[in-house]
Design brief:
About 45% of the residues lie in helices and about 10% in strands. The chain is mostly helical. The protein has a three-stranded antiparallel sheet. It has a two-stranded antiparallel sheet with strand order 1-2. Helix 10 (about 225-235) packs across helix 11 (about 240-250) and helix 10 (about 225-235) crosses helix 14. The relative contact order is 0.13.
Length: about 325
Amino acid sequence: MGAGLSRPRRFTARETAMMAGAVAQRLMRVRGSDLGPEWTRPELSDLLMRVVSPADAEEVARAILEAFPVPPADPREAIRELIGAMRADPYTFVADPDVSSPVFGVRQIADVEALAAWQNMSLPELDWFAARGRRSKRLPERLRHYRIWRIPKAHGGFRIIEAPKERLAAAQRRILDDVLVSVPPHPAAHGFVRGRSAVSFSGPHSLHDTVVRIDLKHCFEHANYRRVKAVFTAIGYTPGVCEYLAALCTTTCSIDDAAQLDSFHAALLRERHLPQGAPTSPALLNLILRRMDIRIAGFAEKNRLTYTRYGDDLALSGDDIDPK
């Protein structure tokens, strides 16, 4: 770096002021009450994503919490100085590719403009349905993109169903049909895979003496935005396209809905996650769990076991298993 030059600011002055202002205004509204729920990474990311991308928002939220484990006395000025001091990394900068280069036989989506055209949306409409700032969880119910209801589970608790409304559901079905169905899941995955079923999931275990079933708790809720974006990145789309595709396929639960749940489940739902009820979610879950499937299938083969998975339901079987 030449003499007299400095690394450029990570964010513009306007972005810095808007992020600091958003956090300061939230703290002022809850002053005098318990600030704990407001001073967490999910809630800070929620505010910051109204200004910058989800990835940048999570990074800034972590930086704020590392610098200020408790809210500073003057949050606007303190956070403005902290963000203003963040600099772009001159050593790892790589320009975004001009066009996508998918490695599977999926639909070509060159850039965000092409994505909007494919979905029959204007760019403002695309931004609205992507709800990248997680603003949807504070909108009145008539403006939210999802209808939400609870289904009691047999062993206690609730399964939260988040079903997209018609326009968003149509966009997700296009993503499923033109992109996700062309990306193969692991052979052990039998749920929501064309040509496979509950019968093909359970059939391989029918001749074994012992079958162990494992249910992954809150599996869809744990599949967060970054994991979903990683799927589209692996497919080969540009960062901008990946960001919007991941946003279209994830959501956050509204505060009034989350208030009816236990604190752990509510915290998961406040993060962007795969909604149960969206047409894209099962296929994305299969691809997100591919690495887990590879590891468990390898363990099963080494120990002469059979492994299959149907959504969040895992099954291992064999003739010499001690389930204890």
